Amino acid sequence: MNIQAVETRVALKKFINFPYLFHRDTPNWIPPLRFDQKNIFNPKKNSILNHCEYQLFLLHDNGEIIGRIVTYINHVANKYWNEEIGCFGHYECIDNQNAVSALLDTAEKWLVERGMRKMRGPWNFVSQDIGFIYEGFDISPVVLSSYNPPYYNRQMIEYGMRKIKDLLVYCCDTMKGYKIPERFLEFTDKIAERYHVKVRPINVKNLVEEARIIVRLTNESIGNNWGFYPVDESEAEQIAADLKMIVNPEVVLIAEVDGEPIGYMITLPDVNYILKDMHGRLFPIGIFKLLCGIKKLKRYRIWALGLLSPYQKKGISVLMFRRLNDILANKDVYIEANWVLEDNALMNNALIQLKFDLVKKYRIYEKLIG
To answer: What is the C-alpha separation between 287 and 300, in angstroms, rounded?
Structure first.
């Protein structure tokens, strides 16, 4: 086995293409769009890379690629966390512990040489694409989430990594009889009246400014959440551009009190349901499948939710879900709330009270190094 640092366009292409070959017979793996994968590793397209020091590696055995890994230091995150943490991500590997050691030893050595004291992962270069599936392998991943074989968790443990955090996934499915509990209908009406809250959809004609509002609310509302670091408002344009193709403005909601934004809920149509038959390619006909299919989708992911501190613990998050429920009331829909921190009592309790089902867990690992 030998490790190759990815330094050329040819090697980068092999790095990007490897999962399409490796997972081609994996039923629940959804091939992401290839141009999106190229953009992830392009600093001109992915602003995260502009404040990261990083290196991509491929693992070969007898001329065949058998694994890959990215190792990096996010300087903005480390400054905010006041820690010396290096991350790894975009991990793929055959079921062979020698191969695992080759990849993770290389990542660890690279981080130690740069003064890091901990290695954490998987933590990919995509917002909220973190953790290995630990429970719930029978459910295909929704938009902006990944799939992995079950044995990746065993590989981490055998290498000496330990759990640092679990992320929970809940769902409701109206096709299986889900209805919002009746008591919440009257409750949320009272909440809206008591706190003068109005919930509106975003204005797609002013998407960049709406993205700036969401970035500001995010930085102010979830600053104490584990794993969070501030997003620069300058990234609003990229966020708007990334979401424009798939966003349904009806289900991206902003809560206001007397005209001032105090919270938001971003719900995305689950385009993965369409992508699974496109083999990662938009052309020649994939683009038509995507554009036509989005309008017919009945699967959604609650991707992000933020609420300013003075308005937390007042039922406003439930009010936003009630509005989402009203908008989708005439459809048979599946809604997934993804990556809820296991110790986020407010969010977990709200979803449990709303009678959502816990269906999946993602796990993030960490190891002391150096």
So the answer is: 20
Would you kindly state where each structural domain of the chain is located, as residue ranges?
2-166, 179-354
What residues does 167 pair with on adjacent strands? 341, 362
Instruction: Give the residue carrying structure tokens 């990556």.
Output: 339
Give the up-direction half-sphere exposure of residue 142: CA atoms within 13 A in the CB hemisphere: 24
Class of domain 179-354 as given by CATH:
alpha beta
Asked if 257 and 195 touch (Cβ cutoff 8 Å), the reply is yes
Whole-model pTM over 0.85: yes
Burial 231-258 (b: 16+ CB within 10 A, else e): beeebbeebbebbeebbbeebbbbbbbe
Query: 295: pLDDT confidence band, cut at 50, 70 and 90?
Result: low
Rounded to whole angstroms, the maximal C-alpha distance in the chain is 68
Q: Which residue has the tokens 């309790």?
A: 349
Give the whole-angstrom CA distance, residue 104 versus residue 121.
11
Residues 6+ apart with CB under 8 A from 224: none
- What local confidence, expressed as pLDDT, does residue 272 receive? 77
What class is the 2-166 domain?
Answer: alpha beta
Model confidence pLDDT, tens digit, residues 329-347: 778 899 999 889 999 998 9
Q: Which two tokens stand for residue 34?
A: 């290839």
Q: Quickly list DSSP for 321-332.
A: HHHHHHHTTTS-
